[in-house]
Here is the input.
Amino acid sequence: MKKADVVIVGGSAAGPTAGISCRRRYPDKSVILIRKEEKVLVPCGIPYVFGTVGSPEKNLIPDALLDKNGIELLKGEVVSLERDKKIVSLADGDEIGYDKLVLATGSQPLELPIPGLDKENVFSVKKDVAYLSQMLDTMNQVKNVTIIGGGFIGVEFADECRKHRDCEDCSVTIIEILPRCLKLALDDEFCQEAEDVLVERGVKVLTNKKVESIMGDGKVSGVRLSDGQELSADMVIIGVGARPDTRLAEAAGLEIGLAGGIRVDRHMRTLGDENVFACGDCAEKVSFFSGKLSRLMLASIATGEARVAGANLYGICYSNPGAVGVFCTVIGERAFGCAGLGEAVARREGYNVVVGQSAGPDRHPGSMPGAANVKLKLVFCKEKGLLLGGSASGGTSIGELMNLIGACIQHSVTAYDMAVFQMGTHPALTASPIAYHLVNAAEMAVKAMK
Ligand SMILES: Cc1cc2nc3c(=O)[nH]c(=O)nc-3n(C[C@H](O)[C@H](O)[C@H](O)COP(=O)(O)OP(=O)(O)OC[C@H]3O[C@@H](n4cnc5c(N)ncnc54)[C@H](O)[C@@H]3O)c2cc1C
Here is the structure.
């Protein structure tokens, strides 16, 4: 029987990151990573397969990453885990022994209780090269695409579908049950702006609408809404989120939490077995802010947890601070992002909120090539001026702006700290130092706190 010091199950965002973290901390430990796919997709790049990137084959995580870090790759499905013997078994009958095990088995698309999901040309968003290739072939042949779900996956699919299908009589429709697209991530003014951009780009947006069933005789012909309306469609994409894949852990008797993930402590150890760790979408999460269960599933959280798990395998080095939630998306040329709590969520959670806002170009002067107008809103807790969150729309600079805000939240930065940040600037690269968005918005909040 083959054996390694560390066995990792899962080859997407969390698995390789846990392996690299382990090898950096414990270079003398052997690591085997087992994953079921022949080739692994960049999960966040999946919507771009249908437009910008053009095919699943152009959206892969290179295996060279594992080799470079001294991690042995084994392709196969782990079908069982015997914790007493410290063995995992593969579908082909092979057994692999471990000293420490990391479960990074990820998530599966949520299944909606809607009749008709089994009809031809109805797809969910699976992280699977062959499935996505078939989905792309179908998209090339159809005219009317309906997307169920207006969260970031649905919105990104819709925008990419428009790019891909530049024909006059083609349509792309989003159906969202909530009053706004992206509502779970962004405050209303940003949701409204995002919907406006979608509509400008030719996407039909139907909010406050629930799909009751999928129509068609064998092949999909449309969707029926709960208000009785029927919309024709020759392809339906379900983009409503994911649930933790805990099948292996559950069968091995590991504890599953109330939000459906594998229960772990702050060091990413499963409860009840200190030799088994879990990280990424399959692991239970708590909010950075409240410690309450969190259902956020993001690559930022998955890789953060994986770094903690990998480093803690042979002694505690790091603690998981909880899910902050740093999120970005882009529709056409306009990017939207949020880190931490939006204003509405912060108020709902009971914080006494102060908001600071700033708007202006992200280059100086604003006539510099590539400049985009940024709108930034920072949310602080009034009592101590603690940063709770930030939301923004703008150009490509939004991505790193959200990361900066996320790091500030994680390190308990206040409006008073931010108001005196010394931000590096350059005309072709950043906003003006006189009106730097982050500092400006913090100053506005300090003024409002007086
Ligand atoms: C369309 C889409 C777009 C997204 N965009 C973003 C984004 O822009 N930003 C962001 O932060 N997040 C985004 N996410 C979320 C992000 O992709 C996930 O949070 C991330 O993939 C989680 O990584 P993971 O490794 O925990 O799980 P997964 O990516 O689900 O990977 C699980 C791995 O485990 C393997 N596995 C599972 N069971 C077994 C078994 N029994 N045997 C062997 N192998 C097994 C799987 O094959 C896979 O390799 C997106 C998700 C989707 C679906």
Summary: The mean pLDDT is 96. The radius of gyration is 23 Å. The CA atoms of residues 106 and 281 lie 5 Å apart.
